[in-house]
Give the backbone structure.
Amino acid sequence: MKVLVTGGAGYIGSHANRVLARQGVETVVLDDLSNGHREAVTEGRLVVGDMGDRALLDELMTAEKFDAIMDFAAFIEVGESVENPAKYYENNVVKLKTLLDAAVAHKIRYFVFSSTAAVFGEPRYVPIDEAHPREPINPYGMTKRIGEAMLDDYGRAYGLVSCAFRYFNAAGDAPDGAIGEAHEPESHLIPRVLRAAKGGRAMKVFGTDYDTRDGSCVRDYVHVEDLAEAHYLGLRHIMETNESEQFNLGSSEGFTVLELIREAERVTGGKIPYELAERRPGDPATLIAANKKAKEILGWEPKRSDLTTILRDAWNWEQNRKY
Ligand code: UFG
């Protein structure tokens, strides 16, 4: 089997690329390296280019006979998407359409898509299952909501079979330390906590008056290695059934920001300097996934998504980063 992995030099895509290789799947990574890292492509061939470049896609898809596409090539910063929605609609919608059109033209039938918990917006209930209304509250979430709709419509009209995964809080790094999270700038909680642990400046806890156990936000952290495995299982599943699917991926357990800091102090063995700060606009109080569907249908089992393992792997990466 041969798979085109767009965005395969990024955080989640590079882990999925490795899992595919481990399963004997041949991969070609297409990444423009705007956020990805050459060193993160440890398997398969890297083509540096833009997934919105139809001529490049035609050339690649003619030369290589792909059975499927896994698409991780998206911009993911909620705050940036509010300030610069054009960038998000251009990449996450317009370029996605180019990729889907090329897939249809070259008869690549199977498409695995990175979606997000941000498609749900402000939760009406938790844990959030797949039936929860999708009412995004920021442009990033909206672009992914539109991506999901495009997959549905392309499925009905052109026979594309897709699997969309809505990640909750992707976290952790490769257990062997080979690849990991390297965003610039880094806005995510765990890397910021660990940088503070290494002696950086005090990190900020955004919001102390939420309706949660201790007033800080509750999130569902899911190990990137578990996410990557779900992609392989999802691809196999849609290839067997020829039916499109959507799955929420999380551990189904929630931790507050302050609980996470305490656990990180235990794992790192040091004090983490932090300040209590104002709420960050757009943060829901609690996000927790219902992961029953992925477990039942895909046989997915999050193996490394307990907070201690996530933090150990992330601490190992933070101390020995390769890029
Ligand atoms: N937080 C802090 N201090 C920081 C950074 C984060 O207190 O320095 C808090 C946030 O307010 C939030 C929690 O830690 O409560 C987690 O924040 P992240 O930025 O790590 O992650 P988000 O939950 O905001 O975002 C994640 C994904 C997004 C996705 C979103 C879905 O990274 O891509 O979930 O709601 F859109």
User: Anything to note?
Assistant: Residues 9 and 36 are 5 Å apart (CA to CA). The pocket of UFG is lined by residues 76, 78, 116-118, 140, 169, 187-189, 192, 203-206, 217, 219, 257, 280, 283, 287 (CB under 6 Å).
